[in-house]
């Protein structure tokens, strides 16, 4: 049985996700986590450790490195669900205006075009070469209404 680790940022995080406290004892997740290749993460200083041991984890820019592949959960011998916690931290970061600019820009892209990526004439030309239909413009009026009513538009435009 692992010894519980004491984190700087216990509070609400541990109240809501008590299993997080037993996380990072074995570093098994480091074997499969794609984020391990970013920054200075290692099998002894894992991505999960970096995120969850931060004084204010919702402000840690590394939370955006998680691609939500759930590999860490599949391999975790203690059934900790780090992705659940990291997704909650991302939501909190977004609510508080700490979302990475790339995240806000992708949301802007979707709200203005209906696509998560820019559609170009070149892309449609290549699609035509493969016999695929061109990607057409979308009516984003409904997206705009939803984003406005939910407050998403204000958060993206007025985000920090």
Short description:
The protein is mainly α and 160 residues long.
Detailed description of the structure:
The protein has two domains: 11-96, Alpha-helical ferredoxin (Fumarate Reductase Iron-sulfur Protein, Chain B, domain 2), CATH 1.10.1060.10; 101-157, no CATH class. It is 44% helix and 0% strand. The protein has helices at residues 11-16, 47-52, 71-75, 82-96, 101-113, 121-129, 141-150, 152-157. The longest helix is centred in the middle third of the chain and has 15 residues, at 82-96. The protein is globular and about 50 Å long. The model is unreliable at 1-9 (pLDDT under 50).
Which CATH class of the largest domain is shown?
A: Mainly Alpha
Domain count: the total is 2
Secondary-structure arrangement, i.e. CATH architecture of the largest domain: Orthogonal Bundle
Number of helices: 8
Which whole number gives the mean pLDDT? 84
Low-pLDDT ranges: 1-9
- Globally, the shape reads globular
CATH topology of the largest domain: Fumarate Reductase Iron-sulfur Protein, Chain B, domain 2
Order of helices and strands: HHHHHHHH
Strand residue content: under 5%
CATH superfamily of the largest domain: Alpha-helical ferredoxin
| Separation, N- and C-terminal Cα atoms | 42 Å
Extended strand count = 0
Structural class of the helices, strands and pairings?
A: mainly alpha
Q: How much helicity do the residues have?
A: 40-55%
Biggest sheet: strands, sense, closure?
Answer: none
* Rg estimate, integer Å: 19 Å
